[in-house]
Amino acid sequence: MAFEVGLIGAGAVAGVHAEILAHDSRVRIVSAFDPMADRAESMADRYGARAAKSVEELLEHSQAVFICTPNRTHVDLACQALAAGKPVFCEKPFALDLEGARKVRDAARAAGVVFQLGHNRRFAPVYKVLKQAIDDGRLEPLSVHAKMNRGELLNPPWVGDGKVTGGFLYETPVHMFDLMRFFFGDVAWVEVAARAHQNNELDDFSILLGFTSGLQATMKTFAHASWHFPFERFEAYGRHSTYETFEMERISFTEGLETETTTLDFGLRPRDHKWGYVEEDTLFVDALEGKGDPPVTAEDGYRVVELIEGCYASARTEKRLALRSWQAAD
Ligand SMILES: NC(=O)c1ccc[n+]([C@@H]2O[C@H](COP(=O)([O-])OP(=O)(O)OC[C@H]3O[C@@H](n4cnc5c(N)ncnc54)[C@H](O)[C@@H]3O)[C@@H](O)[C@H]2O)c1
């Protein structure tokens, strides 16, 4: 029997998940809800599902849900679905402040059902290569530099509205914060300088992260840079070794002083694979089947919100701040 899945939100990213799920025989898309009814109807028509008139109606007919709505709505929708006992795949960001993050984390714990957060980049082949090198001990990161620019805050139309996104760091840069934890472990302190260039919203950040391991990383993120390639990049340096990523297209690495540089190029793979969407959705369905735990948890979501809130607080106070205690760090 296929799992009956409902899509809450029928915009761009819902279309990505729907297309992947439609190719997984373990799943059937049964319902879609969107306040823009024509979107719900066309999504429902495409996959032989019903267009629901409300979230409640969708929950009634679904065994699990994908939350694919604008950022501001995630906390309430996730809590509503979890309260109904439904397994949830929730797009990033997890929440837009610590209070919201606590609510969803508590709701996920109380519901005891599968909850997975949409940090797809963990499953991009480029980032899997980097993670594997760290796990295998081929790269012991001693220093890290990263950037995550956006081309614009124009599309979708709500993406430039801090009241909907929660602020620029909760948009695309949220992925980098998840990856920082995924690769390098827990962050102990942050020190941030930031400026606003549009709509009075901070959109240009210079971030210094101190990890509990002692590792330090810098990260630069700017919202209006154009989509100049590569707008997203990690550089991780070990002793006489460098790993460098070029968006989710390529990774180059040199492991030694007088040796060759290897480049792995994933450019020809379909976008849904090279951006990690196919694997994250497959792992969610695996978890529904009881074959493994969801790979990005509510606890991960909470920690990323904590990190972002730390960055905003540090930018505001112009101080290096210890996470957790929120005190000025030594
Ligand atoms: N993981 C990724 O790579 C990735 C990529 C794109 C978007 N996202 C995230 O996915 C979410 C959706 O982004 P998008 O690009 O699909 O936006 P979108 O604007 O294309 O689609 C969002 C849809 O949600 C609908 N909606 C609004 N409020 C709703 C509600 N209460 N209930 C049901 N539907 C509602 C809107 O009408 C719209 O059709 C955002 O949080 C975004 O940050 C993640």
Structure description:
It is a single chain. The chain is an alpha/beta fold and 330 residues long. Helix content is 35%, strand content 27%. It has helices spanning 12-22, 37-47, 55-61, 74-83, 98-111, 125-136, 162-165, 173-184, 271-274, 277-288, 298-317; strands spanning 3-8, 27-33, 50-51, 64-67, 88-91, 115-118, 143-148, 187-198, 201-211, 216-222, 232-238, 241-246, 250-255, 261-265, 321-322. The strands form two sheets. Strands 14-13-12-11-7-10-9-8-15 form a nine-stranded mixed β-sheet, with helices on one face. Strands 3-2-1-4-5-6 form a six-stranded parallel β-sheet, sandwiched between helices. Strand 2 (27-33), helix 2 and strand 3 form a beta-alpha-beta unit. The longest helix is centred in the C-terminal third of the chain and has 20 residues, at 298-317. The radius of gyration is 20 Å and the shape is globular. 46% of the residues are buried. It binds nicotinamide-adenine-dinucleotide. Nicotinamide-adenine-dinucleotide (NAD) binds next to helix 1.
